[in-house]
Every structure is written in structure tokens, then in C-alpha cells.
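Incident log, structure service

09:12 report received: a user says their structure output differs between two submissions of the same chain.
09:20 pulled the input from the user's history:
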Amino acid sequence: MNRRRAPLALLIPAALGLAFLILPLAGLLIRAPWTTLPERLTEPGILAALRLSLLTASLATLVCLVLGVPLAWVLARLEFPGRRLVRALVTVPLVLPPVVGGVALLLVFGRRGLVGGWLDQTFGVSLPFTTTGVVVAEAFVAMPFLVIAVEGALRGADVRFEEAAATLGASRWTTFRRVTLPLIAPGVAAGAVLCWARALGEFGATITFAGNFPGRTQTMPLAVYLALEQDVDAAIVLSLILLVVSVGILAALRDKWVAP
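09:34 re-ran on a clean worker, output below:
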């Protein structure tokens, strides 16, 4: 590529686009209360929100791995009527407004919902406005990231290894565990990291389905929202933590799985 021949008609909007993306982050760094940052990071409210966010995002990622990897395998390896429709439905949470996702979860898993009513009457289990509800909301919005990454890895994997294992007498389950999973391990890892990051930053579905109760359902994004109305510096500190985590994840992906 010859950079000297790059037309100004492309360079100028590119520079404006870069500035548009970077300036808000720079503003966050400039306004951060650096002198009081250590004390603010150890405040009970911030630590509680951070612990809850890390716990729920990790549990949501685990749920996505258990359910999403088999779903990706079905979409990548099996031919069945309506596969395109199923794939489209899997990606709906990517474009669905998060608040709408939260309302949909309430209609299904709420106490009067399609499944929630049965859970409440049969087992006495209620998901809305609980920590488990946070995990459900985060898994709902994050699972498409994992499914897309794993399905892409499955489609790129050489099926001749699986066919060779089958000819040697390995069952489909053994082939999946011993051959397929090692082949797609980088894709699964990348999808899990993206899934975890999305779960960590989830806001709309969480506040709609699980509420905003400190210590129980108040995750980092919800704490930022609340802090903006009471203590702007606290909101900036919380935002900095999320920014550092996001940049760290992107840097790790870039070094290990994205870079050529």
C-alpha cells in the first residue's frame, strides 16, 4: 500500500472518525480523579459492584459455553430445515435493543411468565430481580458472540481429521471431545472472552429484568448509571475500570487470536 497516494477525501474523514472514537476516551482519562483514585477504588460500593460484575459475567460465560458450543456445532455441522431461520434467531440479541431483551425475559421468566410461572409454582424459584436473573440477562445478550465465533471456527476447521477419527471407530461424542474441540480451541477461547466482555458491560436487559439493587443485582454499568446522579467522580472511576478491562481484552485477542 502506498500511503503517499492516499486521497485527502479519504484521509480527512478517516482522521475525523478516529478523533470521534478517541476523544471520549481521552476525556474520561483527563477528568479522572487520579489523586484520589486509590481510595475510591477501595470504596465498598465500588468493590461490591466489581465483585458482582466479575462473578455474574463469569457465570454467564460458563452458561454460554455449555449451551452455545453445542448450538454452534449444530449450526455448522448439521443440515436441517429452517437452519437459516435458527441462525437468524440466534443473532437477534445482537441487534435487539437491550431493554426490549429485558422485557422479553420478564415475559418468559417473570413470575407470571411462560416459564417463570411454572418455576415459581413448582420449585419456588423466581429469577427476576435476583443475582441469578443478572446471569440470565447477561447470558441472553452475550451468547450470540460465542456462537458466532465458534461456528466460524468450526466452518474453518478441517473436517478430514473428524472423518479420519470416525473411520478409526471413534464415536461422534469422542470425535467431538478429542478432535473437534482441540481444533477449534482458539475460536472457543476468543468467543468466550468476547462473551465475557459483553456480559461485563451489559446494562439494559439487566436493569429491566434484574433491577438495580446494591450488592445483589447492581453490576458495574448499573453502578455507573447511579453514580452519575450522585457522584460524577465515582462514575468516572467505575468507567475507567470497565475501560481498562475492555482494552485489556482487545489487546489479548489481538495478540493471540486476531493478528495474522
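09:41 both user submissions now match this output. Likely a transient worker issue. Closing.
09:42 reviewer note: The first helix runs from residue 8 to 31. The chain has a mean pLDDT of 88.
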